[in-house]
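Is this the right way to post structure tokens for a design question? Let me know if I should format differently. Anyway, here goes:
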């Protein structure tokens, strides 16, 4: 039969906990590539309590590159070449995570 409510709650918490671990790892890898490829300062991988990263059934990250309210960042983010470097760095981190995940799960 179907699991009872208590079992469902435990399973839900286990999934969320594992997703937090995996989210931290993918975040670390994306950050590594962003810092290496852009030369920007490493401001760390911070844990947040946002719905978009907390209530998911898959690893998730939220990336803040800069703030448009800051003239320096606004100019930098307005540069297509910089946005391309950022996008490619993020993709590298995700690809590296996928390779690690597949290796750990014998895929």
């Amino acid at each position: 039969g179907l699991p009872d409510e208590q079992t469902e709650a435990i399973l839900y918490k286990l999934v969320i906990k594992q997703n937090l671990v995996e989210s931290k790892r993918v975040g670390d890898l994306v950050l590594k590539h962003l810092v290496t490829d852009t030369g920007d300062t490493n401001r760390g991988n911070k844990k947040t309590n946002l719905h978009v990263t907390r209530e998911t059934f898959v690893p998730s990250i939220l990336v803040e590159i800069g703030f448009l309210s800051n003239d320096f960042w606004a100019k930098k983010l307005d540069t297509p070449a910089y946005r391309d470097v950022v996008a490619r760095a993020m993709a590298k981190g995700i690809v590296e995570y996928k390779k690690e995940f597949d290796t750990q799960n014998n895929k």
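Format looks fine. Someone answered above. Worth noting: The CA atoms of residues 2 and 8 lie 9 Å apart. The helical segments are 5-38, 51-54, 71-77, 80-104.
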